[in-house]
Design a protein that fits this description.
The protein has a domain of 47 residues: Winged helix-like DNA-binding domain superfamily/Winged helix DNA-binding domain (Arc Repressor Mutant, subunit A), CATH 1.10.10. Helices cover 71% and strands 0% of the residues. It contains eight helices and no strands. 25% of the residues are buried.
Length: 143
């Protein structure tokens, strides 16, 4: 199987970031050959970090916060400049997404500090910023 065919098979399953695809192909060819193939795939619009960012942002929306999205994108080798627009959009929806996730899991504010701390940790693990979590758990309905 050629390197190009292997790359196309990987891309046929789902979008990948350039760095992620390079890592997967690295076992089959040297770095120069992989870079040349990735450049060609980008020119042909078969590989696109912006499409990958959009796909991941859509998959995470409503379930995870902007901090989780940023960490996931950074882990996959996406540059800050490529993720800026998606992160801004995710930040705008953090409050409603956090409320939705919190309501589905808990439904009401815990009566004791330990319970509220558990709710806080749950939302933090989903990647919501602390100020959003405080507004949700505090029951603040403003905004």
């Amino acid at each position: 199987m050629t390197l190009r065919l292997r790359a196309l098979n990987i891309l046929a399953r789902r979008e990948h970031s350039r760095a992620e695809l390079a890592r997967k192909l690295g076992a089959y060819a040297d770095a120069d050959e992989v870079d040349a193939l990735l450049d060609a795939l980008e020119r042909e619009n078969l590989l696109s970090n912006s499409r990958y960012v959009d796909m991941l942002a859509h998959a995470r929306s409503g379930k995870h916060g902007s901090l989780r999205l940023k960490a996931d994108l950074r882990e996959k080798g996406v540059l800050e400049s490529e993720m800026a627009e998606a992160l801004e959009s995710a930040r705008k929806h953090d409050l409603e997404a956090a409320r939705s996730v919190w309501l589905k899991k808990f439904g009401e504010v815990a009566g004791d500090a330990a319970g509220r701390a558990g709710q806080y940790r749950f939302l933090a693990s989903r990647g919501f910023p602390s100020e959003i979590i405080k507004r949700v758990i505090g029951g603040g309905e403003s905004d």
